Input
Amino acid sequence: MEKGKPIIIGCDHAAYGLKEKIKVFLIHRGYQVEDAGTKTQTSVNYVDFGKKVADAVSKGQYSRGILLCGTGLGMSMVANRFAGVRAALCSDIFSAKMSRLHNDSNILVLGGRVIGDVLAFEIVQTWLDTVFEGGRHLERIQTIDN
Output
C-alpha cells in the first residue's frame, strides 16, 4: 500500500493500547490514519467499531482497514459479513503475507491479547507491503464475492 494513503483503524477496549501504538507506528511511516474508535479503555461493544471500519472499506471509502479486539475473532466475524470485505485474522507474519498475496485481504484483524506490539508492527508492515498476486487467486476471490 502506498504511503500517504488513508487507512481506517478501529478496536474495542481490550485492544485499545495496541491500537494506539499501531497508529503511531503507521503515522511515523507516512500513512494517514482515520481512528474509528474506541477512544478509551472503557468497556464497549466491539461490534459497533467493527461495523464502522468494515462499512467504510465495503463502501470504498478506504482501501484498507485494521481491526483489533481481545482475540481478533469477534472483529473477524463482524467484518466478513460486509460485501467486498476480506478480513484476515493474523497472528504471524506468514499469514499476513499470504492473506494479501493470495486472498487480497483488505482488513487486517489482530488480537490485542494474543500478540505483542513488536510482532504486531511486523505483521502490519508485512500486510501493507505485500501486493496481491492476482492470477488464479483473482478468480477465487470473484467466486467468493459473487
Helices lie at 16-28, 46-58, 73-79, 93-101, 117-129, 136-145. The first strand starts at residue 6 and ends at 11. The chain has a mean pLDDT of 96. The longest helix spans residues 16-28.
